[in-house]
Amino acid sequence: MTAPRTPRPARKKPESATPAKAVEPREKASLHPRNRHQGRYDFPALIKSTPELAKFVIINPYGKESIDFASPDAVRVFNRALLKSFYGIAHWDIPADYLCPPVPGRADYVHFLADLLASVNDGVIPRGAAVKVLDVGMGANCVYPLIGHSDYRWQFLGSEIDTTAIAAAKAIIQSNGLNKAIQVRQQGNRKQILLGLLESAERFDLTMCNPPFHASLEEATRGSSRKWRALGKADPKRKLPVLNFGGQAAELWCEGGEARFVTQLISESAQVGQQVLWFSTLVSKASNLPAIQTALKKAGALQSQVVEMSQGQKQSRFVAWTFHTQEQQQAWRERWTSKS
User: Fold this and answer.
1) How confident is the model over 217-234, as pLDDT tens digits?
2) Which helix (H) or strand (E) covers residue 228, if one does?
3) Beta-sheet strand order (sheet of 182-186)
4) What is the C-alpha separation between 111 and 251, in angstroms, rounded?
């Protein structure tokens, strides 16, 4: 005979069946403290300064104002609005299909390089025209010089191999009255990066570089498709551009990809090592770091460091190196007559 079954207490019904809400990812949470792009974008303010942005503003799945980051036109106008509102750049445009990089992430690179210079200047960031920066492969967008000059009043030289990009960058510089602060120089030999570019008497405190990340057009296209999926835009019914952030061959891919470009950059830097205090380059793939470290050792770099950066869920980094001893670095800082 079995014991009588004890009745289970009735489950309480939830007071309200609230549908699950999309959880908004943390955005720009780890930007450099001096980065101007903290918190949410103020779209009304951006639209006030750049009215053409209004037609690109959408409501994202989290119920917040945003733009369609899979649209090159939207990203271009958004960048124009950011540069105007935050950096006073009244006129900015790039040719169709040229690389249109995200401004907040590019600003982070500039600020971390400022910290690098401060590390050999008693913690003080050197500012003003005494600081010279070489932007290797500046591109049509001219973003690094625009940010670096606005925030620190540094002087820039941008190198380029693409004549269309050079013309576009010069138009931005001239239309904003920045001819004395930013110059552009063509690298005449497409097989070289630094060699044949610098004049013997020139000295630069920093170099920076956003290298071509991919080894081929096919690889770049696959990378763009991954970005679409991450942005929730993988809609087979919708016609999307091949490269959602734009970019020409020299901007996005080269033979051997990022690893080969950066190792060549390191090799060439050793030949002009006394003309530059600190070299640097972005590195998109952490898997390339061992080969880069080997190249730095082979080139005879006396110091190097990897600086990790983070913009929300995106991780990036740059590598910096020098051929100057600590004593030489301390002597170099005498060049900086403008202090913060």
Assistant:
1) 454 444 444 454 454 554
2) helix 217-230
3) 182-186, 155-160, 132-136, 204-209, 276-282, 314-322, 303-311
4) 23
Question: What residues contact 13, with CB distance under 8 A and at least 6 apart?
Answer: none
Say how many C-beta atoms besides its own lie within 10 A of residue 153's C-beta.
14
**60 burial level (CB within 10 Å; 0-12, 13-18, 19+):** middle
Q: Average per-residue pLDDT in the chain? A: 84
Mean pLDDT value of segment 309-331:
91
Residue 191 neighbours by CB under 8 Å, 6+ apart: none
- Cα 91 to Cα 322: distance, rounded to the nearest angstrom: 36
93 within 8 A of 76, measured Cβ to Cβ:
yes
Q: What's the token pair of residue 59? A: 């409501």
Q: How many other β-carbons are positioned within 10 Å of the β-carbon of residue 4?
A: 6
Element (H, E) at 262: helix 257-269
Residue 251 tokens read as: 């901007």
pTM of the entire structure? 0.82
Q: How far is residue 118's CA from residue 34's CA, in Å, rounded to a whole number?
A: 14
Instruction: Output the six-digit token pair for 288.
Output: 């390339």
Does residue 252 come out as left (phi exceeding 0), alpha (psi in the -120 to 50 range) or beta? alpha
Helix axes 257-269, 289-299, angle to 10 degrees: 20
What's the rounded Cα separation, in Å, for the pair 170 and 150? 17
CA gap 275, 49 in Å, rounded: 41
pLDDT of residue 149: 98
Give the burial string for 20-53 (b: 16+ CB within 10 Å, else e). Answer: eeeeeeebbeebbebbbbeeebebeebbeebeeb
Greatest mean pLDDT among 2-16, 85-99, 228-242 lies in 85-99
